[in-house]
Amino acid sequence: MNELTSSKIVCPQCAGENEVPIDEKFTECVFCGSAIYIDKRKIVSHFVINSNFKKEDAEGNLRRWMAGNFQVKDLDKLAKISQSSFYYFPMWYFKTDKSAGETIYLQPATSTSISEIKKINIPAGNLKVYNKKEFNESEFVPPDVLFDSAQSWLKETGVNMDSIATSNLVHIPFYQFHYDYSGKQYAALVESSSGKVYANLWPAKSEAPFRILFALCIVAFFLISLLALVVGASMNHFLAFDMGIKIFGYGFAAIPLIIIAYFIAKKV
Ligand SMILES: [Zn+2]
Q1: What's the pLDDT at 91?
Q2: What's residue 166's pLDDT?
Q3: What is the pLDDT at residue 55?
Q4: Listed residues 198, 220, 249: the one ending a domain
Q5: What spacing in Å lies between the alpha carbon of 164 and ligand 1's midpoint?
Q6: CA of 157 to the centre of ligand 1 (A)
Q7: What pLDDT sits at residue 87?
Q8: pLDDT number for residue 238
Q9: What pLDDT, on the 0 to 100 scale, is given for residue 3?
Q10: What is the mean pLDDT, run by run of 10 residues, along the chain of 268 residues?
Q11: Ligand 1: distance of its center to the CA of 137 in Å?
Q12: Are residues 97 and 157 located together in one domain of the fold?
């Protein structure tokens, strides 16, 4: 990252001196063609990640995710997609140097209700220099979280700022889906280079039946242990007998409990 000190900006890629564009945040280096982003007086390279998914394929990934173990039963069949959109979402991208393990930190460069996307993984090889001619600019969400704010966030999370080797602005492609399920609205994002699904909230499996089952397990095993203790005492603490009751008792109790668990998991 470079400071803007004169009427020239130095390209973060080739160090070529460019004229400062008037009223433009995005520009291109006249020497190497690199995309440059100017945030107040800070200059960073501007990258983009290619989209590999068509809308139908992204929706397919969303349906498969809905059919997963953490989602309510039949969500994949019952959810009604009410709205979908495609956009490139801006993220501040920080990478530490080799001594600090080349760790990548990402911070959304605009507000989002789906904070899960902070957990996104970007393989460094996927970064592509942004080129205006190759993309539809209207699909690019402009950043409104300033570079300085992103840096302060990084400092707050305990990252040593001297270890930051690269700072970039990266636009990441997403399909955003809104869907209805039993009268409520939910949103999910499908990252369109990997197909991964991101969501904060979704119709989850109810936990109550599992809690009841857990309580049932504790009661069952407590009673068996008690039985073993009482019978063992009456047999003058004949240890082998005591252990035998426990092993058979636990094994016997486990069968119906496993069957109940299986049916709860299928039903909920
Ligand atoms: Zn350049």
Answers
A1: 94
A2: 86
A3: 96
A4: 198
A5: 21
A6: 32
A7: 96
A8: 64
A9: 55
A10: 66 87 84 86 88 96 93 93 96 90 90 83 81 90 90 90 90 96 94 92 80 85 84 72 81 86 77
A11: 21
A12: yes
Find the domain containing 253 and state its range: 208-267
Instruction: Please indicate, yes or no, whether residues 110 and 174 belong to a single structural domain of this protein.
Output: yes
124 CA to centre of ligand 1 in angstroms? 19
Count how many domains the chain has. 2
Count each helix (H run) and each strand (E run) in the chain, helices first.
Answer: 5, 12
Give a yes or no: residue 203 inside a domain: no
Clarify whether residues 228 and 99 are in a common domain: no
Cα 121 to ligand 1 centroid, rounded to whole Å: 27
Q: How far is the CA of 128 from the centre of ligand 1 (A)?
A: 14
The amino acid that residue 57 corresponds to is: D
Residue 42 Cα to ligand 1 middle (Å): 16
Domain end call among 163, 198, 233: 198
Please give the angle made by the CA atoms of 236, 238 and 241, to the nearest 5 degrees. 125
Residue 172 domain-assigned (yes or no): yes
Q: What is the DSSP string of 194-261?
A: T--EE-S---BPPSHHHHHHHHHHHHHHHHHHHHHHHHHHHTTS-HHHHHHHHHHHHHHHHHHHHHHH
Residues 13 and 144 in one domain: yes
Let me know whether 92 and 171 are in one domain: yes
Same domain, 241 and 132: no
Letter for the amino acid at 35? A
pLDDT, residue 237, reads: 62
pTM: 0.73
Q: What are the residue ranges of helices labelled H in 53-188?
A: 55-66, 75-78, 147-156
| Cα 5 to ligand 1 centre (Å) | 17
Distance 210 CA to ligand 1 centre (A): 59
CA of 19 to the centre of ligand 1 (A): 12
